[in-house]
Amino acid sequence: MMSCGDNVNKKSSAGGALNSSAAEKVYVAPGEQDEYYAFISGGYSGNLTVYGLPSGRLFKEIPVFSQFPTSGYGYSEETKPMLNTSHGFIPWGDSHHPDISQTEGVTDGRWIFINENNTPRIARIDLETFETVEIIEVPNSAGNHSSSFVTENTEYVVAGTRFSVPVPQQDISIKEYKGKFKGALSFIGVEKETGHMDIKFQLLMPGFNYDLSHPGRGDSHGWFFFTTYNTEEASTLLEVNASQNDKDFIAAVNWKKIEEYINNGGGKMMPSNYAHNVYDHNSHTATSTMKKEVRVIDPTEVPGAVYLLPTPKSPHGCDVSPDGKYIVGNGKLSANLTVHSFEKMQEAIKNEKFEGEAYGIPILSFEDVLAGQVEQAGLGPLHTEFDDKGNAYTTFFISSEVVKWKLGTWEVIDRKPTYYSVGHLTIAGGNSREPDGKYMFAMNKITKDRYLPTGPELEHSAQLYDISGEKMELLLDFPTHGEPHYAAAIKADKVAPNSKKFYKLSENTHPFAAKSEAETKVVREGNVVHVYMTTIRSHFSPDNIEGIKVGDKVYFHITNLEQDFDVPHGFAIIGQNNSELLIMPGQTKTSVWEPKQVGVWPFYCTDFCSALHQEMQGYIRVSPKDSDIELEWSLGEDVE
Ligand code: RUQ
Ligand code: CUA
User: Whose CA is nearest to atom 1 of ligand 2?
Assistant: First the structure.
């Protein structure tokens, strides 16, 4: 077993694993492309990073829940609404578990969803543009952690609360936790064609902590499974008080039953307040709408909708096998891994064999639903993924290893150390009927001596293993940004052919777009000035502006007239107290500038776009507040 900083073991094992064939397996020659995309969550960066596998090369950071000065996301006028919530503008998020949309149980490469843990939200990223196009806030939720996993046909993206809270929020004593606090499990409908999200219902569960979840598939399609801990319902010193019960639960939710109930008029609308933010690719602009109610369901009013499966002990990961037959609960404090059987669960439900109930929800008996246990597999299990050959792979945080075991026989086949303290792991198509058993990568919490030191702060480290054979083979270390929790991976050929190259100018409906240099202008409305500006290699139009005054609020609406792949232009002006803009071909973006000092101030393009990029600049004259200098603008002539 490995522990952090166990150098002796590390050297020998790395030496043994990394023979020359390992290097060949991850080598993607210059100019060649990777076989897989990996979308790795950024954790406290709030974003999502895109890597290639097997090379481990970083392609892009997609801003999702955090402002991103590299592109102006969350700074530009068009994208600020994306970060609007019921708590106001939130510039940061904690992103955890990306999951790719599916059709018939197989990843289809259309969208990727990711949850924000802190101020509960779910985002949808369009995989044609690799841009965040929608964010919905999740009300009645706190620590949105058992999220964001999709059902077989992306009927729903599901979000479960980690912390239970008073529902609706109210001013009561924390001591009233037991009974008064609720755990909301939210089923967010996804519109088939557009992907638009809308909360269909929230199931108001007992005040446990809901840690992770996964959908049923195949026979168990129509069900969703959530691990719980703190079934003790403690509100203080959880490290002790939430570790009392020998078993917590996996909650099994029959969402099809709940759909029927709703279709017959069930559930009630609860007043609520949550943001729904949508980005439009033609206007290149996001709008934020506040929603005022949400449908809530009391689980005790829908017979047959929810059952509790006893699961040792403070389980974290909740993973469903590709055939949908097994539900794996990774009990963090348990010696064994617990695997429940969907079939046995159905049988026990049919026979109405219950061991008791919690707040009116029937509890099945552990023995009745148990499929098997992987005994003494390791210490501190967190997450499990599956390959295409009937094997499962579980990460163990404390013993710092990945353990491969067989579904059905529950025997351990192989174990490999991770460097160090692994959290999640990913196999392409992990949450689907058809995982791809070529590579697995582990996302480690502690990096220590794996890379050159960079001061006290180190990037986390991912490790790529070849899992095509009986034994796992370590191939590669690569650094990851932020703190990756889950990652989703997909064959590149499901995504790359659809990737957009540029936005068509003819489809640009931005109200302040200038679609040619002839349309550029500067318009004053009181102390607000709108600059309709364009960029093309290698100038701005206009590039000389006079008649701006101290105290003005100047909106630079910049349209990039280029119609070719990979020719962005940037825009920055001295004293711009937000960020630059990076504008893609055919796109319009807006930055606000409020000049505070009289003078002649330059602006320039921030992206090295052509041989004459350094010539891509302009000047703005700012006069005193009471000046009567007239507004003038020009390109290629001297302002009179
Ligand atoms: S959780 S390991 Cu969101 Cu396991 Cu991170
Ligand atoms: Cu445009 Cu540099």
Answer: 569
Burial 224-259 (b: 16+ CB within 10 A, else e): bbbbbbbbbbbbeeeeeebbeeebbbbbbbbbebbb
Cβ–ligand 2 contact at 167 (below 6 Å): no
Q: Compute the distance from residue 424 Cα to the ligand 1 centre, in Å.
A: 6
Task: Tell me, using a 6 A CB cutoff, whether residue 349 lines ligand 2.
Answer: no
Q: Is the pTM of this model over 0.90?
A: yes
Token pair in block for residue 16: 């043994």
Ligand 1 mean position to 356 CA, how many Å?
Answer: 31
CB 315 within 8 A of CB 146: no
Residue 10 confidence class, pLDDT cut points 50, 70, 90: very low
The percent of the chain in helix, strand and coil, each rounded to the nearest 5, is: 10, 45, 45
Phi, psi dihedral angles at 257 (to 5 degrees):
-60, -45
Measured from the Cβ of residue 304, the count of other Cβ atoms closer than 10 Å reads 12
Mutation pick for ligand 1 pocket among 144, 328, 383, 445 (CB with most ligand atoms within 8 Å): 383
**433-457 residue pLDDT tens:** 999 999 999 999 999 999 999 999 9
Tens of pLDDT, residue by residue over 133-161, are 999 999 999 999 999 999 999 999 999 99
